[in-house]
Amino acid sequence: MILAMDTSTYVMGVALGNMDAVKAEWTTYEKKNHSLRLLPGIDHVMKSINSDPSELKGIAVTSGPGSYTGVRIGVATAKTMASTLDLPLYDISTLEALACNRRFANGFICPFIDARRGQVYAAVYESNEGELHTVYKEKLWLMDDLLAVLAEASTSVHFLSLDIDFHRENIQQVLGSTATFADPVDRRVKPGEILRLAEKIEPVANIHAFSPRYLQLAEAEKNWRKAQGYHE
Q1: Domains in the chain, start-ordered, CATH in brackets?
Q2: What is the model's pTM?
């Protein structure tokens, strides 16, 4: 079995299983620090199927983009477990895992996470019989720029995000009826999809060198670099 975890947003999830079957899954929308909930969540899913760490064959974690603190907690926990238990570690993009909730859709699939100041972390995918293919790689976009690019494509676009309501009006103004929005249950990463993705990729080559995919500097680091005279 693989243990999967996602701490990229305020919604946190843990799952056990493989691409053929999810044995146990737990998700919480409660807005509390993930450091207080992740290990108890892992313990909960392990106990729910009377499993123990000796049965694990790997650890999979979403490495971002997303909340700096949340992603750090998930990656640090996954690295520690993989190293301690001598297990392979699988690096999963938060946006790709989220896009999997619409992996049989026609048109473009656009998962995003709000990054404030009119910016979003986003990627764009297309589906081919349930397999995702990247149209635009994940990066930090100005939402207006992303929508301009999507408008040129003249195809339906399926948006998935916990932050849809922050951008819904803007999306509808630019894309009109070509934009569709995921139901609330599909706006967050499903840990079971992390399991499926993990079994399709090679594990991380160097666990100790593995780090989150932030896509931009944290605000504190930006301010420090500015104070030190760095010019981006």
Answers
A1: 2-94+188-226 (3.30.420.40), 101-186 (3.30.420.40)
A2: 0.91
